[in-house]
Amino acid sequence: MTMEHDLVIRGGTIADGSGGALIEGDIAISNGKITAIGQVTGGGREEIDARDRIVTPGFIDVHTHYDGQCIWAEELSPSSSHGVTTAVMGNCGVGFAPCRKDDHDMLINVMEGVEDIPGVVMADGLPWNWETFPEYLDTVAKGKRDIDVAAYLPHSPLRVYAMGERGASREPANAEDLALMRKLSKEAIEAGALGFATSRLSIHKTADGGSIPTFEADVQELEAICGGMADAGTGTFQVVLDAFVGWDKEYKVIERVVEASGRPATFTLASGNDGPPRWRKVLDMIDQTNASGGKATAQIMPRPIGLIAGLELTVHPFVLCPSWSKIADLSVEEQVAAMRDPQLREALITEDFEKGHPFNELARDWNWLFPLDDPPDYAPPKEMSMAGQAKAKGCSPQEIAYDRLLETEGKGLFLAALGNYEDATLDSAHEMLSHPHCIPGLGDGGAHYGAICDASYSTFLLTQFVQNPGKLRFDLAEAVHMLSHKAAKAVGLPKRGLLKQGAKADINVINLEGLKLHLPEIVRDLPAGGQRLHQRASGYDATIVSGEVIRRFDQSTGARPGQLIRSA
């Protein structure tokens, strides 16, 4: 057999990303492109046996925060550990450019508060050898990494760059400010930004507890900046709306911006855990936007939106109790030893929380705080909550949580299910994901290093709804479509997420029967010795980017073909 191809994947079950029927066949790759699909006669310099395996496009992770990690690290994990070959960063309007030297500390303060990245990690890990957004993109383009990245122009740094201290202190933008931000937006899009991103969420706070620069920015400002995208002729508007003030009010922001700019919008949507299903009305609003000639897409987490709590992490159930300050600076082993003292136990179990970051209080909602063990259960029964266990044992939820920490020598983890777990089921998440204008998202890879590890959602979607489905299921072709081409189209990357002749060879070979998630773990590989949560998977036989195998049997190969994607 002559060696006609760089790589041939043999005998797999191919889900091509379109949502169409599965086919059995081979895929040939040369020069980073797919050259043939079906029966490939010529040999490959390298071949992968995909019999009894599924072959999919690389997944598109539309909501990440690898803005810093893509500079100080070559592996964009956890995302690349879960079949992702393209990651979109700059979400929520936080990032590192444009930025004058005097504003470095302010942007670190915003990113530390909103995305839980330790300030020292950013100060030590970033070279800050840019000022403008195009210069930042040039720095990213020079780096080596395993997967491709695309970047939004983030609102917070843009606002401060254009307005100075007035922008940081959230003063209204005047006509001159709006004109400058529109000009800078056009410049960023023409340099390769995928779009523009902002946050209106009230619980997005700076590290010192203040509101971020974009909070309550006038919609006129968003229209002006997205006008820069219209001037450039491309770009997607990404926004985190403040559902706490009501969808009727907040969704109007999308309607106004889409109508004024003509650009598509994508935003985060979730269900509450209890109360009326307000999200169904939002789906109707999305339908109306698309029926009227606009384009809006909601990003849905396939499992509960949640925090991971534990003594070694940013939050845990006792972190803001006054008595915790006595042992806060001790090692975990010393903390556990101190917690065995009856007096300290009584104090921590009975004390009220002091004020702090909103995440801390969310990890005290006993009705929705669950144990997280190995293998991790992201759809636990309600009776496993701290409140449920306490009711069964006739004690307080605080005691259940406290005893779990002692019994696990301080290593036990908790899942705080904040949303998307309506009535303790995944019914709402499944229904939203089934909607034609919804895609999977909100993995937040590269952020919330000490509290969230949701970048594994692609593996979860495949295991929960395809591999071992109960009453809620997606067929394989539909699930792969969501994770690949449907997600790519929503953020302006229509050529990605498809397996067809001539397409970029970003591919997964997956052992679906053996696919599983492992318990999140703490790794210490950040600049300045910082730690982060990471989550591994088993079952990815190969992940391929531009024709190069970057991971084989769930381990990195060391290949670094990842590139910066510059917009059209």
UniProtKB/TrEMBL annotation:
Protein name: D-aminoacylase
PANTHER family, alphabetized: COLLAPSIN RESPONSE MEDIATOR PROTEIN, HYDRANTOINASE/DIHYDROPYRIMIDINASE FAMILY MEMBER
Domain Amidohydrolase: 46-550
Coiled-coil segments on the chain, per record: none
Source superkingdom: Bacteria
Pfam families: Amidohydro_3
Organism of this sequence: Parasphingorhabdus cellanae
SUPFAM superfamilies for this protein: Composite domain of metallo-dependent hydrolases (SSF51338), Metallo-dependent hydrolases (SSF51556)
InterPro entries xref list: Amidohydro_3, Metal-dep_hydrolase_composite, Metal_Hydrolase, Metallo-dep_Hydrolases_sf
